[in-house]
Amino acid sequence: MTDQFEPRLIGFLCRWCSYNGADLAGTSRLKYPANMVPIKTNCSGRVDPTHILKAFKEGADGVLIAGCHPGDCHYINGNYRTAGRYPLMEKLLEQMGLEHGRVRLEWVSAAEGEKFQRVVTEFTEEIRALGPLGWGTQFHDEAADGDAAEAAREAVPA
Amino acid sequence: MSDKFKFAMYWAGSCGGCEIALLEIKEKIVEVDANYDVVFWPAATDFKYKDLEAYDDDYIDVCLFNGCIRNSENEHIAKVLRDKSKFLVAFGACAVMGGIPGLANVADAAEIKKLVYIDSPSIDNPEGIYPQETFEVAEGTLDLPHMYDTVKTLDQTVDVDYYVPGCAPEAHQIAAVLDVVTAALKGEGELPPKGSVVGVSPKVCCDECERVKEEKKISSFKRIWEFLPDPKKCLLEQGLICMGPATHAGCGARCTGVGMPCRGCYGAPDGVVDQGAKMLSTVASIVDAPTPEEIAEIAATVPDPVGTFYRFGLPVSLLRRAKV
Lengths: 158, 324
Prior knowledge:
The complex is a heterodimer of chains A (about 160) and B (about 325).
Chain A: E1 9-14, H1 18-27, E2 36-41, H2 49-57, E3 62-67, H3 78-95, E4 103-107, H4 113-130, H5 146-155
Parallel strand pairs in A: 1-2, 1-3, 3-4
Helix pairs in contact in A: 1-4
Chain B: E1 5-11, H1 17-23, H2 28-35, E2 36-40, H3 49-54, E3 60-66, E4 69-71, H4 72-84, E5 85-91, H5 93-97, H6 109-119, E6 134-137, E7 140-143, E8 147-152, E9 162-164, H7 171-185, H8 205-208, H9 254-257, H10 275-285, H11 292-299, H12 305-309
Parallel strand pairs in B: 1-2, 1-3, 3-5, 5-9
Antiparallel strand pairs in B: 4-8, 6-7
């Protein structure tokens, strides 16, 4: 065992393309890091920004959204909506001081097992390099009780 | 003392607009006076903190608490008022969800102080002097409240009985809430279940807005100073980011009625966890362009997503600061 940081990743995978791409990677015996928990969604367009934020709040260090290539969406234009939300989400998280790249959007078809392998491997390494996010433990961080408030008082430069 | 009910109102981290909103109920304030004794209301009366602290627990029947919890003084009074009040009401957007001051949660106290006292272009402070929380004088020690890193809502600090959202709450909603509370105190009516959001209407702001709504397809986002919006058409359809679809109804859509897009002060509708995330999702979904690249390009032109989508609700949102 090494003591390197193991990021916790959530992957929202569209059931028509990317989830099957992940399946293909598995049946093809392609190896990739086991850091990502896959969640099957009907469409990448079903991934509400709330889901992404909730994943971070529950302790995720990175979130991958993978869907059908543009033009291939089972629901015609679901992934176009994802395409619009992604840059806004990036901008929002940047305003909160997050590093670029905590959320990643990729188009992975059912035939792209190798791409899935590459994306998850790259993403894991990138988030490993960024380090833990720590949203899960932050909040109610002070003023929760008198002692904590007192500790915070010491910590703030006068 | 008279046998009237006891009323208190307090401002924590707030602008004072909620105090004025209460007076907006006009002649109904006479009715309030007939039913209640004001026992604590720093904006209007001269009771001191020590008077408040001397009351028995549950002495106050209704306390309308407005403002967020920004510093140690806000927190202390919130706790005292909780003990002294039978019904503690989070009154106004700041107490309910953090409000405009909650936007400060993008930074911590040290960053804010550095900006205000050192980095601001209009500041001349070569010695880098910060205000001190305590100061010794001949008469003793003077102290200022301690500013926290994070703005909190009232219910992130103490137990809250009811929530009245709005910046500020609308007069007709305040009047309706006071009627219900007064009737219940007199034993002539029932109170809603504890924890209810009161002073709102069902559904979302769009439901009360009289503008004509059609299919929403936007090819560019605009700001209000760039053009004169059509007085009849939905503002969102005209490219203005209007928070109506992600905002609780209750205000009567007064802003959109005069051509000002909704800013979301009534908070998330029932069942919505994160108002800003929902609105971000909506805005990105209605961008109309032929390719994903163009859609992404247009969506990215929304200026200041935190300030636009979380203008009143950053402290209750799922968003957190990056660790510093």
